[in-house]
Every structure is written in structure tokens, then in C-alpha cells.
Design a protein that fits this description.
The structure is a single chain. The chain has 95 residues and is mainly α. Helix content is 44%, strand content 0%. The protein has a single domain, classed as Orthogonal Bundle (Cytochrome Bc1 Complex, Chain D, domain 2). The protein is built from 4 helices and no strands. The chain is globular, with a radius of gyration of 12 Å. It starts with 9 loop residues before the first helix and ends with a helix.
């Protein structure tokens, strides 16, 4: 399911996955399980440090978190941020 509760748009998930591989794997790993030594959490479980809602995941991407997670709002457009949020949400079995 997507963040909206509808079936995922495969193109959005694909786009989000591509962005994840370009921008996120250094800290979160290719598998999304995170690197504790960098302060990057596991994104494949259903435990969300800042909430697993659509808004919370997108806010984490937009503004960053805890001094470790960089803000992406100035580097990624809103459509890309949403696609990345859908991808990340799905890593943790998002519903």
C-alpha cells in the first residue's frame, strides 16, 4: 500500500528506490537496515523514531532529524521527496 492507502504507483516506488540508492545508502545501507555507527536507523522494521505517518516520513526527509539525517528540501523537489517517502515507508512494511 502507498502512504495514501491506495495501491502503490510502481513508477513512484521505482523513482524513490533510485533516489534511495543515490542518496541514502551511505548511511542507511543498500538494504535499508541502517548503520548504527552513523546514527542511521533501520528502515526495514516497523519502528519509526519520528512516527510512520505519511507526513512524518516526508517531514524527516524534508527537514532532517537529530543532526544526523540531512535535510533534503533544498536538494530534492516535492514529487521526488514523496516518491522517496513511499519507498522508505514500504521498506518498513508501511500501511
Amino acid at each position: 500500500l502507498s502512504l495514501s492507502g491506495k495501491s502503490n504507483d510502481a513508477a513512484a516506488v521505482g523513482r524513490g528506490g533510485a533516489v534511495f540508492k543515490e542518496q541514502c545508502i551511505t548511511c542507511h545501507g543498500d538494504d535499508g537496515k541502517g548503520k548504527a555507527e552513523l546514527g542511521a536507523p533501520n528502515l526495514t522494521d516497523a519502528l519509526w523514531l519520528y512516527g510512520g505517518s505519511k507526513d512524518a516520513v516526508m517531514e524527516s526527509i524534508r527537514t532532517g532529524r537529530g543532526g544526523n539525517m540531512p535535510a533534503w528540501a533544498s536538494k530534492l523537489d516535492p514529487v521526488t521527496i514523496k516518491a522517496l517517502a513511499v519507498y522508505v515507508h514500504n521498506l518498513g512494511g508501511g500501511k
